[in-house]
Write a structure and sequence with these properties.
A hairpin with a 2-residue loop joins strand 16 and strand 17. This protein is mostly beta strands. 44% of the residues are buried. It has a 7-stranded antiparallel β-sheet, with no helix packed on it. A 6-stranded antiparallel β-sheet has the order 3-8-5-6-23-24, with no helix packed on it. The protein has a 5-stranded antiparallel β-sheet with strand order 2-9-4-7-10, with no helix packed on it. The protein has one domain: Jelly Rolls.
């Protein structure tokens, strides 16, 4: 659906997962309103009628996903790309085959380079026993170029207090709140650095991940990207809608928009949340099969063979779906022994 010389190049529908363009591979928005948690950090609710192990039903407003007791994603492998997990509400428990562990949430981001291979689990512990457990997060996959697909696995934590947040006022004094997960929105205030071998770590990649909350009736002018071939996609979610160059982008829609000119986004009247994914394309062949993303079919076959041989380092945890207990905490233990811990709120 070309828009000629207008600001919108193409509209996209927000099916699950959201449609993305190079260098991005995948984006999914998880938004679950879980019931109270039980002693095992699972839901205080019957699981009858759910396809346990493959529950994406959103029945009663939540899913178990691949979890059987605690919702989430028990151990599974990756090779050849990166995951960016932006945890907006609730907590996520990470564990991996290199011995790394973390609990993060409430604005924190985990950025993991799978590289040559890693197995990890992402569980969603229901820590509140006397009220609902709302868990909302984005998981975004970014491709790696062929030169970096076999680098050692690594993850970085981008903690909420380190992530730049800007409050902008439009000409009428209405606010737009911009959170900068990747890239630089305001000169001199870049996001925390991604892992060293990330495509986003290359200054010429022009990768940006921005979340914006537009107040009712607010207007937001997106800055021009650094390069003419930078690709930029805007997604509208959680209700609301916007007008771009006279054309509406409604709730649960997205649009590939021009990045080489300033583009004005106007809230259509009720307040709107937006996610922006931007970057210069890698421009290499992509062969994906399940959790592996490589450049050739032979490399995919090698990934499966390597995983079957050693599980990308084995699994040092006592269960496929480990969680980190009932204590309300945010922390990370990295495979190199580095530890981080921060207050919950």
């Amino acid at each position: 659906m070309s828009a000629g010389e207008g600001a919108i190049i193409e509209k996209v529908n927000l099916s699950r997962p959201w449609q993305t363009i190079d260098p991005f591979l995948f984006c999914v928005h998880h938004d679950d309103d879980y019931p109270e948690g039980d002693e095992e950090l699972g839901p205080c609710a019957p699981l009858v009628g759910r396809n346990i192990g493959q529950d994406f039903s959103a029945k009663d407003g939540w899913s178990m996903y691949h979890g059987s007791q605690v919702p989430g994603f028990p151990q599974h492998p990756h090779r050849g790309f990166e995951t960016v997990t932006f945890a907006r509400t609730g907590f996520i428990d990470h564990a991996d085959s290199l011995g790394g562990a973390a609990r993060f949430g409430r604005g924190d981001v985990q950025w993991m380079t799978a590289g040559s291979g890693i197995t990890h689990a992402e569980m969603l512990p229901l820590l509140k026993k006397d009220e609902h457990n709302k868990i909302e997060f984005f998981q975004i996959w970014i491709n790696l170029p062929a030169s970096d697909k076999m680098v050692p696995a690594h993850y970085s934590m981008l903690w909420d207090h380190e992530i730049p947040k800007h409050t902008l006022l439009d000409p009428w004094g209405k606010p737009v709140e911009v959170t900068v997960v990747a890239g630089e929105y305001s000169p001199g205030h870049p996001a925390p650095p991604p892992p060293p071998h990330s495509w986003a770590a290359r200054k010429t990649s022009d990768v940006a991940i921005w979340h914006a909350q537009l107040a009712e009736g607010a207007s937001w002018e997106l800055p021009t990207a650094k390069y003419a071939d930078t690709l930029r996609t805007l997604y509208v979610f959680n209700g609301g809608s916007v007008i771009i160059d006279g054309e509406e982008v409604a709730a649960d829609q997205g649009a590939v928009i021009r990045a080489d000119i300033p583009v004005t986004v106007d809230d259509a009247g009720s307040g709107t949340e937006i996610l922006i994914l931007q970057g210069r394309p890698i421009g290499e062949p992509v062969v994906q099969y399940g959790p592996f993303v490589m450049n050739t079919k032979a490399e995919i076959q090698k990934a499966y063979s390597d995983y079957q041989n050693d599980g990308f380092g084995g699994w040092p945890w006592p269960a496929d779906d480990p969680n980190h207990g009932a204590d309300l905490r945010r922390f990370a233990i990295h495979p190199d022994g580095k530890t981080e811990e921060f207050p919950v709120g």
